[in-house]
Amino acid sequence: MLIAPPATADYGFYNGYVTKAPKTDLITALKENWNELESFVGGLSDEQLLLRYEAGKWNIKEVLAHLIDAERNFCYRIMRISRGDQAQLPMFSVHEFVVNSFATERSRESLMHELELVRKCTIAMYEGMHPSMLDKTGPARDVIISVRALGFAIAGHVTHHVDIIKERYL
Fold it and tell me: Among residues 143, 128, 118, 130, which one has the least CA distance to residue 30?
């Protein structure tokens, strides 16, 4: 099943992410997005992975830990909405999650392996969805958003952080 991009809408907080996703079907977008991230991170030195563009900001390993946490969080929200749950989920402190991840002590291989597994699970979740689930909507932060749009937001979220790394870290 091909999962087309969502219709243009106001996705509030998620607008920037949805618009940064590759302009293709969702499964292809998620796979291409992973391949680009893997290639990009693979080209960084161990020293670069520890760079912070400013005191108090995350280093690149911590950004990778954030991507892991965020994709898991997106997928939990997607699962709930796709099953008809309309409960507003609590926010989580991305900074506290990163600080408590001890990402700096992990290897690139460990972080990328975990992120790859999370991405494979994301893809499997979407591949197993009935088409009627894709346009179900539910609350996410300040908006009502579809399961389809959240999938594209996952890919765009990664692109957003890679863009920041290219602009501010390197």
Answer: 118
